[in-house]
Amino acid sequence: MSEFKNFIEDLKKNKTGVRGILAIIIIFLYGTIGSYFIMGLNMNDSIYYTIITVATVGYGDIAPITPLQKLFTTSLALIGIGLIAYIFTIIITSFEENLHDIRSGRYMEKRLSEMENHYVLCGFGRVGLSVFEELKKRNQKVIIVDKDEKATEDIEETENIIVYNANATEDKTIKKLNIDKSLGVIIATGNDVENLFMVLTVRELYPDAWIITRASKKDNVKRLKHAGANKIISPEASGGVEIYFAAVQPNLVYITQKHDIDFLEREFEILKKHNCHLEDIEYHFQGIRTPVTRTIGVLDEEEKDHFIDKVKNDSNVRESLDIMYKTVNGVHSHWISGPDKRHLDMAIEELKEEGCLLGINLDFKVINEFTKQYKE
Length: 376
Prior knowledge:
Layout lengths: L1 H12 L1 H23 L5 H12 L12 H37 L2 H9 L3 E5 L3 H12 L3 E5 L3 H4 L8 E4 L6 H4 L9 E4 L4 H14 L5 E4 L6 H7 L3 E3 L6 H8 L4 E7 L5 H10 L3 E7 L8 E4 L5 H13 L1 H13 L3 E7 L3 H13 L3 E4 L3 H10 L3
Helix pairs in contact: 1-4, 2-3, 2-4, 6-11, 13-14
């Protein structure tokens, strides 16, 4: 659909097409004025006669009689035939040129250049698919790069998802991915040599890029680190979820709060408003360094509504949760993810205005002091 729109825009910008439109206007004026003065017709019939003559229809209801009228009608008809041939030539030529542009990747390059605040995912095997699913759950923009068209053929492209079948080890491919405006580059192929080459290329071209790469063999972790990767993940030990969290670290914030269970619904509303997600919850017990962690991940609307309904209306659930909150004195922490720093900042600011935020990226000592302070 976007390629068709670009095609229409190019037609509008085509100077030959503009000249064709001007020619149509001039011939129409010539025919209408000539029909009025030479054929002796009224204005309505002049317009009608011009159209059927230029279109070479000629119903015969109006016929030229004098030599001048016949000369005028002949000239108008010949000009009409030439004009129709000219217009068809323009359309066919423009269509062929734009079809060539589409095939040569011009419109793909335009889409790539317009992407901002996105992730670049290089490699779409088992691990790449797992990472993509995590990105998609959180409505993140992503460019998937894989030279194997069969591997990506089932992906439904949208405004936020682009599939680019190309070799990501080549400089010319990397340069088209708008990495300087991306949130991170995720390299997830199963070939450590290719991964190493991609890390080196991206780091050389974009020194400030956030790069996460897969390491199939532990021996290659150091090599990838020296090449410039910010994070190296072994999927055998972790999988796509950990690769995702490594990718979003610049847009992942650790917050500590104090509130009761009645604030949970409002907390979800604030996060949803700013397109952020509550990834987990850590309950802090006084004097115990390691918190009790519960992974939450991405909850859809039905799951959130079900949870809130349970808290409100199920006395057993509410009592159990209330005991937990009282045990930790209401002090707990979350990892919050968002599409970018701006959205995270807005969500954090609103939580702060609600009076429940204790701090950001607090360490154990500080959090432990809060648990003492709020102990009843």
